[in-house]
Design goal:
Chains A, B, C, D: This is Glutaminase. 4 copies of one chain form a homotetramer. The first copy, chain A, is of the alpha+beta class and 304 residues long. Chain A contains 15 helices and 9 strands. Chain A has one domain (3-299): Beta-lactamase (3-Layer(aba) Sandwich), CATH 3.40.710. Chain A has helices spanning 3-14, 28-31, 65-76, 81-84, 98-102, 113-126, 130-142, 151-159, 162-173, 181-192, 198-204, 206-209, 224-237, 243-249, 286-299, and strands at residues 39-44, 49-53, 59-60, 195-196, 213-214, 219-220, 254-256, 261-266, 270-275.
Chain lengths: 304, 304, 304, 304
């Protein structure tokens, strides 16, 4: 297939959707983004690439970073992790404390905020300098040493992060956070602030399309089984409270962030990254979701 | 691949798991089943079949019938249906009323009981004799005119169905059941009582592996898009409250029933049906889930 | 004190509040009431009476009937009753099913609908003709043999009672309803339909102001201890989801109904009954609550 | 009545109950208490006093301090307070976050922990040195300048207070905490650590039995209306999740603490304070509740 032609087609189709939705505005650094931005990038495991629009522009990857820390965590300790966090869809908002109370401080899955805190806490316990470790891992998989944290965003998150603090202390009260809550959240807010482009992202997650092996470096990042499992978790839990709707429309393991990015995996074939800051009510990029739906319609590349 | 050889291998591997778990005992007709039963059947879209064990023996398909009525419903009216039932995982027990109250009588998806009631209600409204229509559809897709309801099971369900009645009247109070609650549940209890074998099931659902077209008769049952969507719903909502765990271990769109049956779709390739009455705590066949996990390990046929 | 003068004063004060609020309209028989109706009646245990406005006019007592059946139930069996229903405020709407699910079919108290169903079920089990028994008890305490059910209201309730049916079947599924759900609810809908006047009500509940003894007939209805307890339950659970606000403003054990009636007990002294059909958001008579607040302000007769 | 004789009688009756229940052990300072301690004290508004047992011994008043700060808050600002905290029983545990989420950060009442945080936050905003102000108020109403904070207890609370921190940050995320969460909780943990005796307590709260006026000093602490209202809140919300059961058994406006203290008001007459460290499952002093029940049985002094 001529992926570049398909992306070009999508760029035309997507125009009416640009600027729709609501840009995340809970911190000033995100609120200032131009809502009409749109970029899309593909990397296949065979080395084919295609890009359109603002695919080279860095943005705040936010919750997409949860795949990075989850990958690190399963490679560090893939047994204990599942005693501290579940693998089921939550059926409720990404930042709800209700389920956490009903289920005694065990978050439903690693992609809701509380679950991501636990994963970051686990990573935290394994490194002297966890922020450095996460950054090194990110640069390694994306083969881009210029990637870094956006300290302005991280600081903003920290200042407005009362609900994340509430979750952290709540889990701590159940004994499910090992380190100091503020220290874990400091790392968490930094990972969310990672500034990456669509091109970075579609390259970085190729190991999830290639049975755990990064085709660019032939390095094994995780086992095939764990790669399959992360894909399964992305499909069932990766898109906030609209995983079902997204699976229904797009049907690819995916993870979104409130910065407007979405990463989708076509197992055995490729990674697609898309970015557009306007969000739907469920917190996923509105034009990004539409672009992925078009991509699947044009290529038939759904897992179903 | 030599599917028969793989099934034979699985039959050996599975022996330690037979008789484990708990047979559904809320009605006498199900409680009396021999817990060591085990059958498995494959139908590929190319006409290859393989079976082992009790694959020809009929059992109560229970919630697997929800795929049959959902298929009928989307072919009858695939727009209004999604105003009355969601497409998201529930994050709670299949028969919980909590979410129904919080979300004003709109069930989370068509595979929890409340959602299935709405689907049956929708089917009910389109036919003079809905029980006859569902039976005719089932016989047609499975190409087996001897399939019928088990009236003893249906009667037992009705006598113990207080929680289903509670759900039905609760949704009726929100205006989300059109017909008489008792009439809709009478049809629902009958569809659950359908007695089918693994062979029947792996043949019947071939249209979900073949873009909506039944390869046995070349008849189009639903559109490709709707076929993809039912697969997506099965993956995200088909295995009660362990969809995430099942996707993590097996990774195929599947639907289970408390009779011990599970149907799994390998899109573009085949349908696998398995039956063993012992249930895990989440209500899915314990040996059946293990058999599917082994099948995926031996064949690599996961969607991830 | 000159209670008649105080009631006259209140009748003047209350004029701006008449017609405010929303008349219960879920059944036609209630929706047709003139919203400006207002009546108030006092009976002291010493035989003093005072009335104003529409105090002689019969209206649908609705949930006030829950005191009648609770009184019957505690006199029939005051030990087992508290295994089947709690004594705590619910913290949620009178017809919520959420708590019922979280607490395994045991309603929080006898004054939410589910709790009242259990009480009616208990009464039902003790009589050949429970409807006749409840009516006889009501006539006895109010010394008015002309009181009867309003069969039009009862029939309307039955036709729109889907949520009550949902609760009944839900508790039945937990084993907490002994008789047939429809039979119990038939009695429940009849007790709610009882047509009584303010005068009837302030006379009927004098036993709750007089340590369990009806001063009019010197008949012991219940023990002093049980009388105290029903007053305590009325104070903590009698006013739907605004018991705290009502205790804060009025401070008397009270029970309201969606027909617009409220009964308040001044222990050791008197019973006050008030009626005005316009309801506040919490489902209590708006002018009735105001009238009681004025009464307490003028007389200082609060229990606090 | 001869109150001393009645207390002496109770001291005999209560022996079998001493040492029953479970001493609060979440902090070492509380866990070390002798579970057989028992004291009881009465102060009437006419100046009569009576004491038994360990009535002079200081203990940690814990949640009883919520009456002190609520009294300060209503005298400082009795309008805005009710926009930030409700007046309804919670129907759930004293430290639940579920309701807080469902009701957008507005706690149900001032006596659950979250509600007490809001009250302390409000007091905090009015004073340069809020800890000093609370201590001064406490000494003033109890006429005992030797009362002070137990800094060991306060420090222990702070170290184990993750759940309180979770609540604080959660409400902060809804905008319902004005000051820094840690600062407010520091004050809160100190007020909970106040060491007072039964005698101190029965003297301190006389204003609630005397229409807002402290009879010892003839000082008006709050208006009669606010005094009635605090009594109403104590009755409907003061005993954790067993207010209904307590009202049923004792029937007096009361507030308990996990230190084993309970304060009960007989409006117009007296205050009773009781202390015994063994707690029932609901967190109230077991022998203390029994002693109050006996007192009401012997004296008939219930509000119902």
């Amino acid at each position: 297939m001529n992926y570049q032609a398909i992306l070009n087609q999508i760029q035309g189709d997507i125009q009416p959707y640009l600027g729709q939705g609501k840009v995340a505005d809970y911190i000033p650094a995100l609120a200032g983004i131009n809502p009409s931005k749109f970029g899309m990038s593909i990397h296949t495991i065979d080395g084919i690439t295609a890009t359109i629009g603002d695919a080279q522009e860095q943005f705040s990857i936010q919750s997409i970073s949860k795949i990075l820390t989850l990958t690190m965590a399963v490679s560090l300790d893939d047994t204990n992790i599942w005693k501290r966090v579940g693998r089921e869809p939550s059926g409720s908002k990404f930042n709800s404390l209700i389920q956490l109370e009903l289920e005694q401080g065990i978050p439903r899955n690693p992609f809701i905020n509380a679950g991501a805190h636990v994963i970051t806490d686990l990573v935290y316990s394994h490194f002297d300098d966890p922020k450095e470790a996460i950054l090194a891992f990110t640069r390694m998989v994306s083969m881009n040493d210029s990637i870094s944290y956006d300290y302005v965003v991280a600081q903003s998150e920290r200042e407005t992060g009362n609900r994340n603090l509430a979750m952290g202390y709540f889990m701590k009260s159940f004994g499910n956070i090992e380190n100091k809550v503020r220290d874990v959240l400091d790392v968490y807010f930094h990972q969310c602030s990672l500034a990456m482009s669509c091109t970075d992202l579609s390259k970085a997650f190729l190991y999830l399309a290639n049975e755990g092996v990064l085709p660019t470096s032939e390095k094994t990042i995780i086992t095939k089984k764990n790669s399959d499992r992360i894909n399964a978790l992305m499909l069932t839990c990766g898109m906030y409270d609209s995983v079902g709707d997204f699976a229904y429309r797009v049907g690819l393991p995916s993870k979104s962030g409130v910065g407007g990015g979405i990463v989708s995996i076509v197992p055995g074939e490729m990674v697609i990254a898309v970015w557009s800051p306007g969000l739907s009510e469920s917190g996923n990029s509105l034009a990004g979701t539409k672009a992925l739906e078009l991509f699947v319609n044009y290529t038939g590349k759904t897992i179903f």
